[in-house]
Amino acid sequence: MKFAIINGSHRHNSQSGKVAGFIERTLQEQGLCDAVWRYDLTGNPLPLWEEAIWDADPEWEARLAPIREALSESDALVIISPEWHGMVPSGLKNFFLMLGAREVGHKPALIVTVSNGPGGAYPVAELRMSSYKNNRLCYIPEQLIIRNVEQVLNEDGENDPEADPYYRERAVYALRILREYAVALRGVRDSGVTFDERFKNGM
Ligand SMILES: Cc1cc2nc3c(=O)[nH]c(=O)nc-3n(C[C@H](O)[C@H](O)[C@H](O)COP(=O)(O)O)c2cc1C
Questions:
Q1: Ligand 1 within 6 A of CB of 189
Q2: Ligand 1 near 16 CB (within 6 A)
Q3: Between the CA of residue 193 and those of 182, 189, 199, what are the distances in Å?
Q4: 55, 115, 128, 162: which is deepest, by most CB within 10 A?
């Protein structure tokens, strides 16, 4: 069982990166998977989408090959998005343009959003509205909205005594559900019904 964690913040030392580290440790400590692949959009490693991608441009192929391989091997994804101006960061939306159904189709994904205040609901709504249509990623109904993020999930112990244990327990709960979806959805993919040349894109 392999999980992929995507940190959608472009910022260096982002809180989303901190949350990604917490999710990775929790997966390992709880024995929920055998391996974790983490990909950070810190510093914008991917240029904006270009049509050359469709022409199998060698530079793009070299850039995307390791990402495609790691995602193809993954059974489940955790998508971490900060709320920026009430939106998902553009780098994360750009990343979704490069994901295909062959890598992530019919794989379960947990949405985790991050706000340094009381926000975090808008990126949940945005991801559920747009980001899965063609790649057929399956967002599970559970989600984590990490509000006042600077006061929780810190390694040094300087955490809000009420909110911090709640988020830690809630994360275990959500990740255990994600794992069960990963087990269940393997059967859907293996059934062979999900790929049909006539219907390459979602409606
Ligand atoms: C460009 C920008 C816009 C932001 N807009 C919002 C917002 O609309 N709502 C919100 O709750 N936080 C907003 N924030 C603050 C983030 O919640 C905060 O930076 C938090 O640490 C998560 O982002 P990070 O993972 O990049 O650190 C914004 C931050 C940036 C950099």
A1: no
A2: yes
A3: 17, 7, 11
A4: 115
9 Cβ closer than 6 Å to some ligand 1 atom: yes
What domains can be seen in the chain, in order of their start residue?
2-199 (3.40.50.360)
pLDDT in tens, 89-117: 999 999 999 999 999 999 999 999 999 99
Q: Distances in Å between the alpha carbon of 154 and those of 8, 90, 115?
A: 19, 26, 14
Q: Of all protein residues, whose CA lies closest to atom 4 belonging to ligand 1?
A: 84
CA-nearest residue, atom 14 of ligand 1: 84
Closest CA to 14 of 47, 40, 48: 40
Residue 51, both tokens: 């049509």
Ligand 1 proximity of 115 Cβ (cutoff 6 Å)? yes
What's this model's pTM, rounded to 2 decimal places? 0.98
- Measured from the Cα of 116, ligand 1's closest atom is 17
Q: Which of 6, 83, 87, 11 is nearest to 43 (CA)?
A: 11
The reply to whether ligand 1 has any atom less than 6 angstroms from the CB of 15 is yes
Radius of gyration of the chain (CA): 17
